[in-house]
Design brief:
The chain is of the alpha/beta class and 240 residues long. Helix content is 40%, strand content 19%. The mean pLDDT is 94.
């Protein structure tokens, strides 16, 4: 099954693919992404959420002063994102939400100050060549000095290969780090039988508990990570 068909099926069948709202650790990740945009995009320029699913991260970004756009491969995802968010954010227009992908962003050159690729190139099942092509497409739509914020769920042994691959594109790596969330995901996996209990589901959803567990996981350094976290920037002066 090709990714477009697969992702469309997920969004048609599942109320929330990947269950981000059920996981406090994902709330922390989305908050981290929003914080990077807030402190690094100082011109107040537009921001694009690539692969918006049903709009959970998009909602975090809409709390910023920037104008937020979102795209997804799945028509159902785009439609549901608008339905889910238009009642919360009165200024949201349908033209801010479009079909598209990291390989074909439906906006003109140098339109955005920032792009977000959360659970991105790896989660989108891109080939190594397509990952580099995604960085080329990001370069095209970014203004000089603009950034891409990337998080991706990976085995730790693949972090270096992944970051080296993205660095082959025209964007310059500014931050090459990780999120200390491995212990949280281990707990979820090891005790998944407890998900039938409401108290355990509440525990998994708690942002406070996720913060405590992440602090413990962080004591292991990179060994305590499941998500790579990168920021890439388009140079102010470009010859590409």
């Amino acid at each position: 099954m090709d990714p477009v068909t697969d992702f469309e099926k997920k969004h048609k069948v599942e109320s929330e693919p990947w269950g981000y709202s059920e996981k406090g650790v994902e709330t922390l990740r989305h908050s981290w992404v929003r914080q990077q945009i807030s402190k690094r995009v100082l011109d107040g320029g537009p921001v694009l959420d690539i692969g918006c699913s049903k709009g959970l991260l998009t909602a975090h970004l809409l709390c910023l002063r920037n104008k937020i756009y979102a795209i997804d491969l799945s028509p159902t995802a785009v439609r549901m994102t608008y339905q889910n968010l238009s009642s919360q954010f009165a200024g949201l227009n349908q033209d801010q939400l479009k079909l598209g992908s990291a390989l074909s962003i439906p906006f003109p050159d140098q339109f955005f100050s920032a792009l977000v690729m959360a659970d991105g190139p790896q989660g989108w099942e891109l080939t190594p060549l397509q990952k580099v092509q995604a960085m080329e497409e990001a370069y095209r739509v970014l203004r000089p000095g603009g950034i891409v914020v990337v998080t991706d769920f990976l085995q730790r042994r693949n972090f270096d290969e992944y970051s080296s691959l993205l660095a082959k594109g025209p964007l310059k790596v500014e931050v090459n780090s990780y999120l200390p969330d491995r212990l949280w995901f281990q707990l979820e996996s090891n005790f998944k039988g407890l998900k039938k209990y409401s108290w355990f589901r509440a525990f998994l959803k708690s942002e406070s508990w996720a913060q405590i567990i992440s602090s413990i996981s962080g004591l292991q350094g990179r060994r305590g990570a499941k998500h790579i976290a990168m920021i890439l920037r388009k140079p102010e002066t470009t010859n590409h």
